[in-house]
Design a protein that fits this description.
By secondary structure, this protein is of the alpha+beta class. It is 25% helix and 11% strand. It has a single domain, classed as Trypsin Inhibitor V, Chain A (2-Layer Sandwich), CATH 3.30.10.10.
Length: 114
Amino acid sequence: MSRKLSFFIAIFLAIYSSVEGRTAYPPCSPCKCTGNDCAGTGLFPKGSKFVWPELIGIKEKDAVNQVLSSNSVVTPVVIYNQVTNITDDCCNRVWILVDQPGGNGQVENIPTVG
């Protein structure tokens, strides 16, 4: 069942990304760290941000822009909060869960690298 859900998530994100005019997210760069634990791994430029608690409650487009401006290595991936079975930890992705699909949602999680 989780493979089917993962496949659905990948298809949904690819379609959503193309509709929003964004490029599809890159393949996963697996890592064994999340959030600030990823600092010092050598994968990120000095001064990169890894956790964005201040983004809870703001509009998804603003959240995406803030993530992009504070860590150039990661790709923010917006996903509707009803899809909660994310099983991969990727050093190059930041999952942003929003309360409604369609581009006008508000962030409901603390976006974190990994």
